[in-house]
Specification:
Layout lengths: L7 E3 L18 H4 L12 E3 H7 L3 E6 L3 H4 L4 E8 L8 E6 L2 E5 L7 H11 L4 E3 L9 H8 L3 E4 L13 E4 L3 E4 L4 E5 L8 E5 L4 E5 L3 E2 L1 H4 L11 E2 L1 E3 L4 E2 L2 H11 L6 E4 L5 E2 L3 H15 L13
Bound molecules: zinc ion (ZN) (2 copies).
């Protein structure tokens, strides 16, 4: 049997395929999709073995600290590969008294990463991935952490490597760790694009369903019209979602009580009033598109 560490990984999106021969794999469907892109130099491949043996990479664990975590006996740890690889998203390790989950996934994995998650934080009950851009090497992670990986059934076609640990879910929401975490499909970026609600800490993990934009990180006394979030079909190519899809994202999360929102990249954290700021941002963006009488404007946070 082939060692999966020899399977091809797309250098641009970091998604792993169940193939070993680069001459037979000329394209990456994830990067060919109009939401993604292919570099000028063309499609290229690596493997997990090459990444590990290069000695270049390591995963940094960065705790995101604020009062809402400390007083609730919880931890939120950003796991991010340095130097950056592929899309360079982060995974978020959510540690709670009722159990842990890994929200989203990254391509680079090594023994030290697994040791830290198991020994320092007690492992995880599940890996839950927001959408196809972050499928990465999720089967390696699941096997190393001995847990299932949850993937929205709507996006099944984008999962390039399958295995026994994969769980496709059809529901509109799914809870983990006895209700500690609730994953909610909000759609838009992908049909199954999801967010993770963590009620105990008043946090929403938003991935690419919406991005925390630079003006959302520092948002004290900003002038009217300043956004905190954006909602795109393609982030790298800047193709927006239509107003009704943005409105659907708001409707999917409007009943949730959250203060903080954490995006898919390091530093993209919005602290305080995030639920209201999602609606403010949706209104600003839908107005800018020319829809000043859209139903979103009747919503109140
Ligand atoms: Zn790719
Ligand atoms: Zn994405």
């Amino acid at each position: 049997m082939t060692d999966p560490r020899g399977y091809l990984i797309c250098n641009t999106c970091g998604v792993q395929y169940a193939d070993t021969d680069p001459s037979k794999r000329t394209s990456c469907p994830v990067c060919d999709d109009p939401r993604q892109w292919v570099p000028v130099s063309g499609q290229s491949w690596t493997t997990l073995r090459q990444l590990q043996e290069s000695g270049r990479y390591r995963n940094e664990f960065t705790p995101l600290d604020n009062d809402r975590l400390a007083t609730k006996d919880c931890k939120l740890i950003s796991i991010h590969t340095q130097p950056n690889f592929a899309i360079s998203q982060r995974a978020l390790l959510c540690v709670s008294p009722k159990g842990n989950i890994l929200w989203d996934c990254i391509t680079y994995i090594d023994d030290e990463t697994i040791r830290r998650i198991k020994d320092e934080y007690g492992g995880v009950s599940a890996i839950v991935i927001s959408h196809p851009h972050y499928y990465s090497t999720c089967l390696h992670w699941a096997e190393a952490l001995q847990c299932p990986v949850y993937i929205a059934a709507e996006d099944e076609q984008w999962l390039m490597r399958r295995g026994e640990s994969i769980r496709f879910w059809n529901e509109s929401r799914l809870s983990f760790c006895d209700g500690e975490f609730v994953c909610i499909k909000a759609g838009g970026h992908f049909p199954g694009s999801s967010v993770m609600y963590w009620p105990r800490t008043s946090k929403l993990l938003v991935a690419d369903t919406m991005h925390v934009v630079p003006s959302g990180v520092y948002h004290e006394n900003r002038p009217q019209g300043t956004t905190s979030f954006t909602f795109m079909w393609s982030y790298p190519n800047m193709i927006p979602l239509p107003p009704d899809e943005i409105f659907n994202i708001w409707k999917a999360i409007k009943e949730l009580d959250f203060e903080d929102a954490h995006g898919g990249f390091p530093g993209r954290d919005a602290y305080g009033r995030s639920r209201a700021r999602v609606l403010e941002s949706a209104k600003i963006i839908i107005s800018a598109m020319g829809y000043k009488d859209h139903a979103v404007h009747a919503e109140v946070a």
